[in-house]
Amino acid sequence: MISDSFHPFDDDKLHEECGVFGIIGASDAAAHCALGLHALQHRGQEAAGIVSYDDIHYHQFSAFGKVGDSFNSEEVIKGLPGKTAIGHNRYSTSGKARRAANIQPLFAEVSFGGLALAHNGNLTNARLLKKQLVEEGSIFRTTMDTEVIIHLIALSKGVDAVECLVDALKQVQGAYSMVVLAEGRMIGVRDPLGVRPLVLGRLGSSYVLASETCALDIIGARFERDIQPGELVILDGENPPQSLFPFVRTGQRFCVFEYVYFSRPDSQVEGRAVYEIRKALGRELAKENGIAADIVVPVPDSGVPSAIGYAEAAGLPFELGIIRNHYVGRTFIEPGDQVRHLGVKLKHNANPAVIKGKRVVLVDDSIVRGTTSKKIVQMVRDAGAMEVHMRISSPPTTHSCFYGVDTPSQDQLLAHQMSIEEMRQFIGADSLLFVSVDGMYRATGEASGRNAGAPQYCDACFTGDYAIPVVDNETDGLPLLDSVLVETAS
Ligand code: AMP
Asked: Strand, helix or coil at 423?
């Protein structure tokens, strides 16, 4: 039984949303890597790190804050020499201890030499494995699930880095897209269900791995293909990519929330343009839940493409009735309820010139705690709207994600606590409706909707259908293995 109120390392989360990037065979690998991470900034803003390799040594630089604030000097980039570099952006923790050791890529020295690893996703049996490893004598430096993989690699009897990595990954469960640097090679790997994205690109003779294609675009790299679910790709800087499928194939369950919210709209994910899917979500929303209104207004930026689709399908004018201040981070990044509320106020402002006297359809991609919608509906009313109809381009978020998206515990999800009518009252809208699960699937190109027998995506946050067992959640009585160290991070 999955108890959704459980969050494995709630105080100092061991998992979070992330972006990964790697390049091999480029003379200025670290600079490219920094640019790639900058393009993936939306996937994580708390900290960033790069490890480069110059054929003898590994070089590491990591810092809290945005990529542009840390990797912004020649000195930093010069400190990361070599033709290979991998990097990682991490999302905010829930506001407790910030731990410098948790900034990825993680680095370790193991039997075959140096090993750097950057992971996007979340392992669902990490706590159990960590308990076993600690009992056997492993010494953990971080509170990240990713470190479990490092220890499993170190203990493996494999003959090289690839064998050790495969050996380790066969013991973990969960969602992962990873970029690894070892033995002068760059390795990319996606979990068997392909929950999180990972793409392969090419820049001249160098190869690139990245969470999303927008990170290829920024350095002018050409998109080659998605790494397949369960695929491990080896890049040695000279030969064409070598591809292995070392895991039992269990079908594909890409995270549908990447399309709904998480990926950048200019990315192509799993062969589909995120922007087009978001527009299609808006069209489905209008078809299923249209209403008489004067204008369609997006909640920027997340609601913009679906509001365009909604307006198109409903034949209504699309208006920028809410203006976003771009100098404030994403609402969720601000830890703590007080600041989160303040964040919403800082971030959006209604545009009375557009809204006054109108029947407004407000479009956003999701309601999580309801903080954003409540504020925005009030703002639009204060700006003189006659009616406010909230439309959401995903189904109600009823369940927590255990695979790498930072949703709060289930008891904090508005759609878990309330019926849609109660939610409507809570946010203060005249009406509130969501796209259906089948409508969401149709928008992704699945004409007949969700295939109940074998769903095409991971949609656990909307359906509670967890594609990968959350072992840590099911194992009672595991002692908390959070570090007892309180670090004052600079
Ligand atoms: P809330 O205000 O708690 O209802 O959150 C909904 C808002 O947060 C919407 O505007 C979404 O675009 C955005 N959002 C949804 N999921 C996430 C997430 N995992 N991380 C950051 N923002 C999110």
From this structure: helix
**Fold classified for 15-253:** Glutamine Phosphoribosylpyrophosphate, subunit 1, domain 1 (3.60.20)
Mutate to test the pocket of ligand 1, among 332, 347, 373, 375 (most ligand atoms within 8 A of CB): 332
Q: Model confidence over 231-283: pLDDT tens digits?
A: 999 999 999 999 999 999 889 999 999 999 999 999 999 889 999 999 999 99
389 lines ligand 1 (CB under 6 A): no
* Domain chopping of the chain, boundaries: 15-253, 272-445
Taking 50 as the pLDDT cut, the residues of the chain under it are: 1-15, 93-96, 331, 333-334, 480
CA of 165 to the centre of ligand 1 (A): 34
105 upstream amide cis, omega within 30 of 0 = yes
The residue written with tokens 């003779």 in the block is 205
Q: Which CATH class is domain 272-445?
A: alpha beta
HSE value, Cβ hemisphere, 13 Å, CA-based, for 443: 34
Q: Is 397's C-beta closer than 6 angstroms to any atom of ligand 1?
A: no
Look up 458 and say whether it is catalytic: no
Residue 376 in contact with ligand 1 by CB distance below 6 A: no
pTM of the predicted model over 0.90: yes
The 8-class DSSP code of residue 90 comes to E
